[in-house]
Amino acid sequence: MSPAPVNVAVTGAAGQICYSLLFRISQGDLFGPDQPVRLQLLEIPQALGALDGVVMELMDCAFPLLADVQTGDDPEKVFDGANLALLVGARPRTKGMERGDLLEANGAIFTAQGAALNKVAADDIRVVITGNPANTNALIAQQNAPDIPADRFSALTRLDHNRAKSLLSKQTGAPVTDIKRMTIWGNHSATQYPDLSHTTVAGKPALDLVDHSWVEEEYIPRVAKRGAEILAARGTSSAASAAGATVDHARDLFRGTPEGDWTSMAVVSDGSYGVPEGLVSSFPVTTSNGDWSIVEDLDVSAFSRSRIDASVAELESERTAVKELRLI
Ligand code: NAD
Ligand code: LMR
């Protein structure tokens, strides 16, 4: 007998990212080949027609694991009983914008959704924020859900993590599977810090294999500005890779990071590595059964310190901005 379906709420369900994400979830990429899922899809009223078309396509795939699909525009109805909420729905930036410029436009979405999750989600709810600016939107949702433990919220820096691995793989000629202990610190923004200090490539320190000037002048800026590079090339922001990273993030959260490795997630800081408590900042984390732990006691060089501090300062200014907007 198959287990009871997991209830997965997804917002922005008629958007670009979800056009890939919903199909990945339904084919078992998140919870594995034996776990049925029920999709609970939220959209704004104007997009419910387009969402009907996406649901028709989901039906037409005849996914064996897709137990049910519900749709709606009321978060209190759509989030009812959700075990996992993937908050994707938000406006993407357009050319010339930084992700933080979206705070005013998108922040309010996350007050209402945090409050609705607080009211109607299942007791074991986990919430993953992809919509930008992801870290501070996660802070807003978390602050508006006082009855949900803060460690149930996380925001996506997995796309940056994957980009950092892929670019290092290209530079060293090693397959991505040889790359372990990659870390993204800070904000999912141009200030993020992809840190190779603890990264290994086939067991060797990554920093022994690449030039320091390449790391500082090419690697870090390329990873940090990859979203803008894609936006310039495609005319719209990354979508399939963002869906892939959302699947990777949520899959690892539930099914665990491999022994001897870690991943990057933006989580509510407990003060580790000098990141002020309460900020949603990216750290190296290990995961298991829906929970995460920050990897502690890593050495932080003076260069790393200055990079982490710069990104954390940006997160602090975003927190001040959303306080002024009365979103938290
Ligand atoms: P999109 O414009 O194609 O889709 C967004 C969808 O969200 C739209 O269908 C819209 O109707 C819906 N929406 C808006 N407000 C909503 C609300 N209150 N409730 C439910 N749905 C709502 O955008 P996209 O390309 O799918 O990107 C979605 C978000 O993800 C953007 O903010 C984008 O910047 C962000 N993003 C994040 C990452 C990351 O790594 N964190 C990567 C790529 C994109
Ligand atoms: C990305 O990193 O590709 C996304 O956050 C989209 C963006 O605005 O850069």
TrEMBL record:
An example of a GO molecular function for this protein is:
L-malate dehydrogenase (NAD+) activity
Q: Which Pfam family name is an example for this entry? A: Ldh_1_N
Task: Please report the stretch or stretches of sequence annotated as the Lactate/malate dehydrogenase N-terminal domain.
Answer: 7-149
Keyword NAD: yes or no? yes
Keyword NAD in the entry? The reply is yes
Using the record's annotation, list all stretches that form the Lactate/malate dehydrogenase C-terminal domain: 157-324
Q: Which residues form the active site?
A: 188 (proton acceptor)
Positions of substrate binding: 93, 99, 132, 163
This protein's source sits in the domain of life called Bacteria
Per UniProt, the keywords (alphabetical) are: NAD, Oxidoreductase, Tricarboxylic acid cycle
Which residues are NAD(+)-binding? 12-18, 106, 113, 130-132
What's its catalytic activity?
A: (S)-malate + NAD(+) = oxaloacetate + NADH + H(+)
Q: What does this protein do?
A: Catalyzes the reversible oxidation of malate to oxaloacetate.
PANTHER family listed in its UniProt record = MALATE DEHYDROGENASE
What's the protein called, per UniProt?
A: Malate dehydrogenase
What species is given as this protein's source? Kocuria carniphila
- Gene transcribed to yield this protein: mdh
